[in-house]
Structure formats: structure tokens, C-alpha cells
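Final report, section 2: Outcomes. Of the targets proposed, Cobalamin biosynthesis protein CbiG is the one most frequently requested by collaborating groups, and we therefore present its record in full.
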Amino acid sequence: MIRFIALTPAGESLAQKLLSKGVQNNWPDAVVDYKPKPFAEFVQTGFKNGDWLVFICATGIVMRTLAPVLQDKYQDPPVLVLDEDGKFVIPLLSGHEGGANEWGAQVAASLGAQLVMTTAKPYLNPIYTLGMGCERNCPLEFIESLMLEALAQKGLTPNQIHSLNSIDIKADETNLIALADKYHWDFNTYSAKELAPMELLLSTKSDYIFSTVGVYGVAESAALLAAQMETGKEPELMLNKIKNAKATCAVARSYQSR
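The predicted structure is given below as C-alpha cells.
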């Protein structure tokens, strides 16, 4: 569960705004907690239960309250802190491992706010790319439903996706083109030779796919290469390949300076 914790009327108003946007962004169940009492016990209990916490108050209050229950970055849930004007979003705890950086970027984008990241990738903008493979003449519903499932698994929305990508033998795949058109994405395809350098970053390798098209995985390779080409920096798989009866889909991410 996501808890928006506010201590002032302005903070509560911002929390309600975020709550409404959360529904649009397919976030998990969320509630607004205005001046919860007893404050420390309430907050610490939510934290220990694994709730994702958004505080709209001073950073110092948050740190003093959570200090007794902090464990480590691999177990603590993500925590964000916002000012009550909604101008800044700070991923305070579990930035990378817990997903607070990525989540904070979504919150900042929804508000038009500045993301203030102080972890290993400071002040960087995430670029998300989709890679897809499919059977020839795959129906649109198979492609679209799988894509939406992939985005939902990572809390992303279609408008956060930079491009849809595949191998060059799919350059004329009618419904990959139609999917990209529907969501206003660029549709890019790459040769097996261009995709080959992504091999070391793949989560799995399929000898069958390699024997068929010349790469060990179409969806992951295409997503990774597109992310790298957009930013010029090392890409990473955000979502390993998932599949249904007729298609595969993966999500990659890289970062560029704002």
C-alpha cells in the first residue's frame, strides 16, 4: 500500500492530488493520512509493514521518526519526501534497490516537479524503452495485452515509454506498427549484427531464437539497444522478457542528464 502522509492543509491538498493521479498511473492501493496520531507509532508501523511512504513535510521529521526502524536498503520500503508546494521530490530511502528513485521520477513527472536524487545517478532522467518479438501476423490484442501487462508490472504508463523496438525482420509487422501508432511511439528495428552486442546483458539466451533470427533474444536485445542509443550510456533490463502464446516483451532503461 502507498501512504501519503501530510501534516498541513496544503500538504493534504497535494496528497489528494497525487492520490487522484495515482489511479491514472496504476499505482497500488493508496490512502491519504492527514496528521495521523500517534504520529511516530503510526509511521513506524506502516514502514515495518512494507508500506510505500510519501511524506509531505520536512525531511528532518521523517528521518528522526524512521531512524529507530531502519534496517538496510535491501529490506526497507521506498520513502519519498515532498515539499507542500509540490516543487521537489526526494527519494529518501531505498532509492535504487527499493525503487524509490524510479517511483520518485514518476511522481515528479506527474507534478511537473524536480526530482532530487542523491544516489549513484544524481539528477538523471530515466528513459524507458520497449522491446517486442512476435509471430508473423500476430493479432494486435496479443501484442497490446502483453505490453500493458509488462508496464503494469513495473508501475509504468504508456506515455513514459520512449519507443517500441524489434528486429529488422519485423520492420513490416503490421500490428507492431499499429501498436506504436496507437500510443504515439517511434517504432525502430535493428539488424542481428546491431543487436549482438547486447548479448551479455540478456537475462536468458535462447539457442532456438538464435538459430532462427541470429540473436539470443529479440525483445530484450531490442529494448536494451534502443535505450543505449538514446542516451549513449549503459542500459539495463528493467523487466526481463515476459511472453504469452504469440509474443514477447521486455522493458529496458537508461539514464540521461536532465
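Residues 9-24 form the longest helix (16 residues).
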